[in-house]
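Researcher: Following up on the earlier apo prediction. This time include the ligand. It's zinc ion, with the SMILES given after the sequence.
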Amino acid sequence: MEQRQETQETLGQQASQELQQDQRPQGGKRLSSNSQRRRERRNSFFVPIVLAVIVLILLVMLFLLRREEGPQEPEPSDSSIAVPEWVTRQYLPENPFSRPGTALEEVNGVAIHYVGNPNTSAKQNRDFFASLADQTPAEEGEPDPNTYASSHFVIGMDGEIIQCIPLDEWSYCTSARNKDTISIECCHPDETGEFTPATYESLLRLVRWLQEEFDLDGGQILRHYDVTGKECPRYYVQNPEAWEQFLADLAGG
Ligand SMILES: [Zn+2]
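Model: Understood. Below is the ligand-bound prediction.
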């Protein structure tokens, strides 16, 4: 009984302490009821989780937003096809005479040409194509005296390669096959049109790379002559065995 009295007394003291503490107007730690404590415990558990989820959502939104913005640097127009570092890219300005900007929908061949202007450099031929942009468009219904010409690549006598047009655009080089071929013009030292060994090696290298890139076999490597009957590239039309040798070298590499 004594024990029970003590307990009751103790409980009574605790109760009055709680009451006193509850009645304290300010300061001191207010003892919480069980439900308040549970709420606090739940809050101390949930609040950080909710905050973490919000932060996570914001981070994901930020990530998606940045991805949509894309890379900061502007991509070249043929970003899907990166040419090797041994090709110098010097695009022509877009213009109706040498770089119309027409999309090359498919590539079913490579057409080989000779520039027909002995002892000129790849740069000179590239610049000639660029200068065609300065022509005056013909009036509608009037005859058009303008020159339309260009090539995706020009290979110089020292084997240098200049790219004039992105690989997803038309060049004006091979008449009916402009719509589905990549064109290569080759420089030459004299009227025979025979390529120098350096030009020849660069041509092999470039055509092999294009074959790989566009999945083309030897039968899809053409002379301009094979498309239109024009004597181009001259030496390899006049000497068909030289063309056969080129195709053999291509396959042998
Ligand atoms: Zn040609």
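Model: Strands lie at 88-89, 109-114, 153-155, 161-163, 181-186, 221-223.
Researcher: Noted. I'll compare it with the apo version next.
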